[in-house]
Write a structure and sequence with these properties.
heterodimer; A: about 120 residues; mainly beta; seven-stranded mixed beta sheet; four-stranded antiparallel beta sheet; about 0% helix; B: about 110 residues; six-stranded mixed beta sheet
Chain lengths: ~120, ~110
Amino acid sequence: DVKVTQSSRYLVKRTGEKVFLECVQDMDHENMFWYRQDPGLGLRLIYFSYDVKMKEKGDIPEGYSVSREKKERFSLILESASTNQTSMYLCASSRTGTGGLAKNIQYFGAGTRLSVL
Amino acid sequence: KNEVEQSPQNLTAQEGEFITINCSYSVGISALHWLQQHPGGGIVSLFMLSSGKKKHGRLIATINIQEKHSSLHITASHPRDSAVYICAVSPYSGGGADGLTFGKGTHLIIQP
């Protein structure tokens, strides 16, 4: 089974702190994603990566950056945490394929609930 | 950008009832996903479909590409089906690297 592991389930940080959220997948997937989930807004894409050292902005990248130094690991960085970044953060991965639709299936981690005080 | 609308937002039903959750989207897609999220956060994929109908146990998903509409049905609903059900779409793209666009979810409660 595909496993996507997020380093923390719950995290409490102070305003202005630099925050790292880590995600590791064990299925050699090329693509990795970071989403945030807020009540009434659903999941929104922050950043994604389709290869090592490659990154693309999603719908709401402001205030975030990412790092992908190794294929299995995708990190989300909050450079200076703010209270409006209190949210549930979900990591996902998928494979790249040339045929069929299975490449579209994304596998999610359990989520990190971040509170910024 | 695709707009994904789900209805209803909240649904409470009695055990055994037939449940329908609807999803519509605004722009052509390569695939539509139905996801389930239980309290605690973890999201699992229930279905991915690009045409027709799929069935898994008591769950059935259908899609009408021309009308840009999909439905998720649960037959003989059970309290363990209580969860948030999320519709998401994959854009047309070359290799599946693009992120999904999500509906806001349907919070389903099945009462015994």
